[in-house]
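ok so heres the complex, two chains, lmk if somethin looks off
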Amino acid sequence: GAGVSQSPSNKVTEKGKDVELRCDPISGHTALYWYRQSLGQGLEFLIYFQGNSAPDKSGLPSDRFSAERTGGSVSTLTIQRTQQEDSAVYLCASTPGRGSYEQYFGPGTRLTVT
Amino acid sequence: GNSVTQMEGPVTLSEEAFLTINCTYTATGYPSLFWYVQYPGEGLQLLLKATKADDKGSNKGFEATYRKETTSFHLEKGSVQVSDSAVYFCALRSSANAGGTSYGKLTFGQGTILTVHP
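and the predicted structre for the whole thing:
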């Protein structure tokens, strides 16, 4: 079946603009995670969704970052007033939940802030 | 808090050479351990996993053994191929509870770039 998909695959934006990154998890997967992969910081956890709620937002680096999930499916990560340090690859992963915790990753969105 | 430390790369080997990528971790409780691989231009893929002490994960000729006494999960392969060229990430998942739900976010090492030459 289809895997996790993310869009856009690449995004170049000017400093100060807002961006939205989208994740479509595997159908039926109840849990969804966002991670960030950047030079010097490696792979960092950002936020976890179970259904439409986000019990763990501890990895969001600032209040410029927010995320939502609707219908227990698609998730959007929004970065407001982007800064150059936001440049990274943003990865989404989903898991079936219900005792199965293997995370399936999407291809990522490469964000470049100029 | 949890942390994962991988040997620094990049690692460059000739085809059929033996590979070891070291990984050690710090965690409370009893984490599960993973190796993920990222091939050029592709997303992260689970390579292998081990969920308890002394478990050995294996896949595609790669192996790693969960060593609780040394808090290690070193990745090994007896004979690498050019197609193994990729970035390898060691990761741990510790049980956590939030909002009444048990879940497992991953903590990753910094990644090791492996290049295999013919």
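quick notes: The radius of gyration of chain B is 14 Å. thats all i got rn
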